[in-house]
Specification:
The protein is α+β, with helices and mostly antiparallel strands. Helix content is 37%, strand content 18%. The protein has helices spanning 47-56, 73-81, 102-105, 109-118, 122-126, 132-148, and strands at 15-17, 20-29, 35-42, 63-65, 85-87.
Length: 149
């Protein structure tokens, strides 16, 4: 019997969103803007569902800075099990307000600067590659060239 490979947009990390068909890059970055973990998902995947997978790939994290997309009760509990302090502001539609360290949250621009540096390369910004493995390998190559060499 011959096994068939999986096909389709979801297998190629392409999801349909308001802006069209796209994909998301999730990552963990240190204070020097260097990416340590990169994960590629379809654009219609919720950030709070991918967050635990990102955090579990790296040890030694003291604080986890994230934007409002990572605000969920289950995601807030998972880093605390590993003694990681989550610094994530609450969404505006929460019934109970969530307190966060505003001074520490000001350092979250580090990840935005990392993404902007990665997207300086046109191949990453526009996603010319159809296959997820080709796009992700180009993303890893650009990260190595831009931050580690």
């Amino acid at each position: 019997m011959r096994w068939r490979r999986k096909r389709g947009a979801s297998e190629q990390a392409i999801g349909i969103t308001k802006g069209g068909r796209n994909s998301k890059i999730h990552g963990l970055v240190d204070k020097l803007c260097r990416p340590w973990v990169l994960i590629l998902t379809p654009g219609n995947t919720a950030d709070c569902t991918v967050g635990p997978a990102c955090v579990s790939l790296l040890d030694g994290i003291a604080e986890l800075l994230g934007d409002k997309a990572y605000d969920s009760n289950s995601f807030r509990k998972s880093p605390r099990k590993d003694d990681i302090k989550p610094v994530i502001p609450g969404r505006s539609n929460r019934k109970k307000r969530i307190r966060h360290d505003k001074q520490a949250y000001k350092d979250r621009n580090v990840i935005e600067r990392c993404y902007c540096r990665l997207k300086d390369f046109r191949r990453i910004a526009t996603r010319y590659d159809k296959l997820a493995r080709n796009y992700f390998s180009a993303l890893c190559l650009v990260a190595a060239v831009a931050f580690w060499l």
